[in-house]
Amino acid sequence: MIRELSTLKRTIGRTAGFFSIVFLIAFIAFLIVDIVLLSPPELVQSKLTTNPSLTLPIKPIEIPDQPDPSTDSAIVLGPDLEPGETGNNNQVQEKKFAEADKNKQVQKVAYLTFDDGPSDITPYVLDILREQQVPATFFVIASLAQNYPDYIRRAVADGHRIGNHTYSHKYRLIYSSPQAFIDDISHAEATLQTIIGYRPTLLRAPGGTVGNLSKTLASELRSMGFILHDWNVDSKDTMAALMPAEKIRENVVEQTKSKHVAVILFHDGPGKTTLPEALRSVITELKQEGYQFKTLDHLYQPIVAIDR
C-alpha cells in the first residue's frame, strides 16, 4: 500500500511539472502576440532592429550623367547656385534640369526694322505687316515724316514703334562734328514728337555706329535718354538701285540661319518698289523657321557695333 502511494505521488509530480512547462510556454507566446498586436508600429520596428549585427546589404543608387544645358550665343543662362545658396547636390541637379528645360524653350526672335522712310512705299509695307500680323520698328527721317505724317500715325496705330533716324540724313552735315549730330537728332526729336505725341527714344545712326559715332558721343547720347540700335542682319536692299525681291529674301534668310536674335535692316525709302514682295516672302519663311516677331523696345540688350 505504501509502495502504491509513492508511485502515485511521483506520477502526479511529473504530470504537474509537464503542465507547468506547457502553461509557461503558452504564457510566453501570449506575451509575444500581445506585444506585436498592441504595440505601435514604431515600437515594433525598433524592437525588430535593435540588434546592430542584423544589417541588410544596400545597393548604391546609380545616378545617370546629367545633360549639359549648352546655350546659344544669344542666350546666357545663370549659374547653378544663386548667392547665399548652399552646395546641396539636389539643388544643383534640380537647377541644371530647370535650365536645360528653359534652354529647350528658347524662342527665336526677329526684329524687322525699316530705315529712310516714310515714302510712297511705306503704306504697302504697313499693309503686309498688318496682313501677316507682325510688328516692326521704323527709323524715320523726320524731314520726310513732315511730308507723310499720316503714314507715321498709322504705323503707331498699328502697334509699330517709331525711331529717330535724324532730321536731314545728310552725312556731311550730321557727322561734321558731335554737336552737329546732336543738333540734327534733337530737331528730329521735336518734329516726331509733334506728329506722334511722344518722344521717340530709339535711335539709329545713318550708316550705323561704326565709323560714324565715337564711344564718347554714344555715351553722351545715352545720357540724353536715347537707345542706340544697329543691326546684325542686312537685307542689302540698297546695294543696287533696285534689288530683286528674291535676292533680298536670300540675303535675309542666309544671315538668320545661325541666329536666335535677328535684327533685320530694310529700307522703305523712295523707289524701293521690290521691298513689299520681298518682305512678304521673308516673313513667311521666318515663320516657318519658328521665329517670333517683336519691336526693338523688347530687345533687352541692343545690338550696337561700336560697343563690341
From TrEMBL:
Stretches that traverse the bilayer: 12-38
Instruction: Give the record's GO biological process terms.
Output: carbohydrate metabolic process
Which GO MF terms does the UniProt record name? hydrolase activity, acting on carbon-nitrogen (but not peptide) bonds
Q: Report the CDD domains cross-referenced here.
A: CE4_SmPgdA_like (cd10944)
Name the Gene3D superfamilies for this protein: Glycoside hydrolase/deacetylase
Keywords of the record, alphabetical order, are: Membrane, Transmembrane, Transmembrane helix
Query: What's the short name of a Pfam family annotated to this entry?
Result: Polysacc_deac_1
Q: Which domain of life is it from?
A: Bacteria
| NodB homology domain: residues covered | 108-294
UniProt name for this protein? Peptidoglycan/xylan/chitin deacetylase (PgdA/CDA1 family)
